[in-house]
Q: What sequence folds into this?
């Protein structure tokens, strides 16, 4: 996608160590890949996270962004339950206190633009370019598709969309990946890293990648 930035291996491993103690569902290899995307995606714009839970990926992304001067991470999550993808949370429970504590512990509070609301509310007034769109929120088809449709129009050329849990039992992420990325000539290189499905937005030459997709 581009030449890797200086010291990226050390930066990624440091970010992984910072995020290691935060509760979440991101495996180590998935975390490494996500951190690498944050560091090396060749596009201007923001890193936007839809679905923060207790802050594991937020801390990871913010740590990388802080090192390379990439600006604040935009973290969107209502922190409410119950949810079809978090069935273990009792009704009325919230992950927000633990999310906030994770940012404080990592000294990254100033590196994250927090939106404690649903993604559709943030999307109403969204007008900023996105370099990395990390979709890990509502995993139903309707929810994942809505997140993609609301925010993907703001992807900068060369930016990346990554969807978590695309190879798990949830219908949404894999259908969105196949229908909106693999079948679209707006995207170039695409693939999987464990359960993360990803695609690079290349509206000018995506058709050249059709066979590979």
A:
């Amino acid at each position: 996608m581009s030449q890797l930035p200086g010291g990226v291996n050390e930066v990624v491993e440091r970010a992984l160590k910072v995020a290691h103690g935060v509760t979440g569902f991101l495996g180590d290899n998935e975390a490494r890949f996500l951190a690498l995307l944050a560091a090396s995606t060749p596009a201007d714009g923001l890193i936007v996270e839809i679905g923060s839970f207790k802050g594991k990926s937020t801390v990871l992304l913010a740590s990388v962004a802080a090192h390379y001067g990439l600006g604040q991470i935009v973290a969107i999550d209502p922190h409410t339950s119950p949810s079809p993808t978090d069935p273990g949370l009792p009704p009325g429970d919230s992950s927000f206190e633990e999310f906030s504590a994770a940012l404080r512990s990592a000294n990254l509070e100033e590196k994250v633009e927090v939106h404690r609301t649903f993604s559709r509310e943030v999307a109403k007034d969204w007008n900023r370019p996105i370099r990395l769109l990390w979709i890990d929120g509502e995993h139903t088809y309707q929810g994942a598709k809505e997140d993609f449709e609301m925010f993907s129009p703001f992807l900068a050329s060369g930016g990346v969309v990554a969807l978590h849990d695309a190879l798990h039992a949830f219908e949404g992420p894999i259908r969105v990946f196949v229908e909106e990325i693999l079948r679209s000539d707006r995207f170039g290189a695409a693939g999987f890293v464990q359960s993360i499905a990803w695609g690079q937005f290349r509206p000018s030459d995506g058709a050249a990648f059709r066979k590979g997709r």
Remarks:
- The chain has seven helices and seven strands.
- Strands lie at 46-50, 73-76, 112-115, 130-135, 155-163, 187-193, 196-201.
- Helices lie at 8-19, 28-40, 56-68, 96-105, 119-123, 141-151, 171-182.
- The CA atoms of residues 157 and 202 lie 6 Å apart.
